[in-house]
Amino acid sequence: MIAVLRNKATHKVLDSNSNKDVYTLDHNGSNYQKWVFIQQDDGTYILKNAATSFVLDSNNEHMYTHVLNGGHFQKWRFHRQNDGSYVMKNLATSRVLDSNGAGNAYPLDSNGGDYQKWFIEAI
Fold first, then answer.
1. What are the C-alpha distances in Å from 31 to residues 40, 60, 84, 106, 108?
2. What is the CATH number of the domain that holds 22?
3. Whole-structure pTM over 0.85, yes or no?
């Protein structure tokens, strides 16, 4: 599946670039805003950027993309919320993908806020 990830609070979408940065921007239809969902045998997903082929990666402090290595820092669990959005939890850190109004994307402990909820819009 190829999809755009739209933040519930900001309505901006998850974006990336060739420098491996991850952030959110207004939707513009570019391939940098499209993510290929690759399901793993353990039920997690790897998200590959359609423009760069780098995958969504994280540590305790930063969100970025990187060459696929199959490690747990590149695997994500999707937890469906009552409103149809998802909280994306990193398998290695147990932190979730968070954002803010300035367009930053970063890992944070789960707090139930709308900045941590993402709508998956299949293309």
1. 23, 27, 24, 21, 26
2. 2.80.10.50
3. yes
